[in-house]
């Protein structure tokens, strides 16, 4: 038997980092996906083959006791640890420790770009392996297991990335609970800086600043939470799109300023944000953990001008759509 599962990338529209401190956030799945095939092997070992996971020149395979690198694997090692933990967790759930499982991964999601590639591989792996082992889990349960994997690998995590990857669509998330927001076509452009940030390190860096000066950082996190609640009010209102977009754009700019203030922006990220605004985007901000990775811009009138401005500023633009669909078990072949 061979199972194929796929899970989407995400963008955080509002509330990254503050969501780790129990504040709300809003995120959406987007139409870039990770594909994971799972099948049994006779070696009793976990074997992971990762090809074309958007790390230049990568071909990696490793099993329980052996690791082979065919080329510089860089950030991929972090992603592969999510896969390995995901398989181990599902084997425990299914009481199938010792069963040999091979998973093969391909992904359209750039690694370390703040688009949730680690969460998507964890969710797709849990989906494929749980199906292979005969566990009937809902997408919501798979999202929760994805959160456990993130906590194991990343140390701290709010769980928003695996939740939105498993569930799909547009969600409001707070302390492990999510609610679908009315679906809305958002005219956005995502801009990739070309460099990656480590979510684990960025979350730890914000934590250190918070512990050093809670009286300064706590009000910033509270303000981020208020931005999210205001954005939810705007999204769920029956105002015209023009007014809704204008208000969301202003909230994005404020949220970006606060993310910059807590130290997760970079020169390149800010350059892409400003290039997008100068080209007419009505809002632009970091999306995800920062430290490299991606920004996104809201550009109802001029997506292609904003995409060009991002290119001229040295980034890679992606005009992407919100994906209604989360985890999908694509095929079961016997
Ligand atoms: C990463 O996509 C979002 C962060 O808020 C981390 C998390 O929520 O686990 C930075």
Which features characterize this protein?
334 residues; alpha+beta; Ribosomal Protein S5, domain 2; Alpha-Beta Plaits; 2 domains; nine-stranded mixed β-sheet; binds (R)-mevalonate
**Strand content range:** 25-35%
What is the number of E strands?
Answer: 13
What's the helical proportion of residues?
40-55%
Assembly state (oligomeric)? single chain
Radius of gyration, in angstroms, nearest whole number? 19 Å
Major sheet details: 9 strands, mixed
Please state the structural category. Answer: alpha+beta
Domain GHMP kinase N-terminal: 82-169
Pathway: Isoprenoid biosynthesis; isopentenyl diphosphate biosynthesis via mevalonate pathway; isopentenyl diphosphate from (R)-mevalonate: step 1/3
GO biological process, one term: isopentenyl diphosphate biosynthetic process, mevalonate pathway
Family: Belongs to the GHMP kinase family. Mevalonate kinase subfamily.
Description:
The chain has helices at residues 76-93, 117-132, 139-154, 160-167, 199-212, 214-236, 241-261, 267-278, 303-312; strands at residues 2-14, 25-40, 46-51, 59-63, 66-69, 101-107, 170-174, 177-180, 188-192, 283-287, 294-298, 316-318, 328-333. With 334 residues, the chain is of the alpha+beta class. It has 2 domains: 2-181, Ribosomal Protein S5, domain 2, CATH 3.30.230.10; 188-318, Alpha-Beta Plaits, CATH 3.30.70.890. The strands form 2 sheets. Strands 1, 2, 3, 4, 5, 6, 7, 8 and 13 form a 9-stranded mixed beta sheet that branches. A 4-stranded antiparallel beta sheet has the order 10-11-9-12. The chain is globular, with a radius of gyration of 19 Å. The model is unreliable at 55-72 (pLDDT under 50). The structure holds (R)-mevalonate. This is Mevalonate kinase.
């Amino acid at each position: 038997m061979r199972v194929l599962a796929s899970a989407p990338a995400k963008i955080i529209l509002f509330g990254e980092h503050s969501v780790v401190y129990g504040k709300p956030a809003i995120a959406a799945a987007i139409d870039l996906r990770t594909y994971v095939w799972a099948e049994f092997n006779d070696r009793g070992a976990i074997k992971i083959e990762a090809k074309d996971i958007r790390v230049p020149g990568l071909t990696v395979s490793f099993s329980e006791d052996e690791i082979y690198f065919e080329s510089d694997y860089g950030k991929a090692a972090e992603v592969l640890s999510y896969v390995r933990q995901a398989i181990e967790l599902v084997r425990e759930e299914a009481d199938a420790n010792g069963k040999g499982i091979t998973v093969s991964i391909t992904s359209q999601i750039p690694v370390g770009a703040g688009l949730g590639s680690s969460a998507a591989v964890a969710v797709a792996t849990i989906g494929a392996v749980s199906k292979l082992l005969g566990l009937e889990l809902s997408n919501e349960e798979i999202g929760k297991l994805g959160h456990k994997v993130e906590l194991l690998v990343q140390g701290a995590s709010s769980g928003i990335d695996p939740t939105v990857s498993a569930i799909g669509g547009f969600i409001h998330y707070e302390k492990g609970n999510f609610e679908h927001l009315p679906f809305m076509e958002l005219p956005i452009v995502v801009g990739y800086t070309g460099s990656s940030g480590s979510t684990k390190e960025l979350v730890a860096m914000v934590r250190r600043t918070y512990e050093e000066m809670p009286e300064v950082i706590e009000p910033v996190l509270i303000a981020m939470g208020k931005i999210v609640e205001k954005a939810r009010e705007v999204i769920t209102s029956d105002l015209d799109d023009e007014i809704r977009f204008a208000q969301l754009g202003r909230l994005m700019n404020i949220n970006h300023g606060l993310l910059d203030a807590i130290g997760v922006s970079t020169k390149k990220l800010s350059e892409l944000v400003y290039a997008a605004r100068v080209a007419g985007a009505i809002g632009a901000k970091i999306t995800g953990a920062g430290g490299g990775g991606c920004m996104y811009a809201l550009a109802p009138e001029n997506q292609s001008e904003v995409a060009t401005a991002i290119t001229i500023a040295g980034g890679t633009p992606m005009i992407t759509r919100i994906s209604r669909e989360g985890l999908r078990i694509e095929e079961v072949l016997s």
